[in-house]
Amino acid sequence: MSLQHLDSNEFDEIIYDNAESSLVIFSRESCSVCQGVVPILEDLKSKYDGKYNFYYVDVEEQKNLFQRFSLKGVPQILFFKDGEYQGKLAGHVEEDAVEEKIVEVFEE
């Protein structure tokens, strides 16, 4: 189950206009660390299906989104709830760390 790719228009609509509770990974195809993190999110997407949304932003194609958040490096997983930025995880992360952040952001 792959993650839906977002462009800047879709990002604004989903995250801000619809205020969906979402995880968005900022990544690039050529990033070896990213290739280890994306499958973790794909697994979690099926676990949390219907509760939270999981999206992918390719920083090569969407440089403006990457710059909007002043991100340095990839992968970066940003968390949004009710249209508000709630924090991020950067670099190589384990599934447990992502799940802890999901609970912290969305379930408390």
TrEMBL record:
Does Membrane count among this protein's keywords?
A: no
Q: Which Gene3D superfamilies match?
A: Glutaredoxin
**Residues passing through the membrane, by range:** none
Keyword Oxidoreductase attributed: no
Q: Which UniProt keywords apply?
A: Redox-active center
Annotated Thioredoxin domain ranges read 1-107
- One example GO MF annotation: protein-disulfide reductase activity
Database matches in InterPro entries? Thioredoxin-like_sf, Thioredoxin_domain
Q: GO CC annotations?
A: cytoplasm
Q: Do you know which Pfam families this protein is assigned to?
A: Thioredoxin (PF00085)
The record's family statement is: Belongs to the thioredoxin family.
What name goes with this protein?
Thioredoxin family protein
Q: Which organism is it from?
A: Clostridium beijerinckii (Clostridium MP)
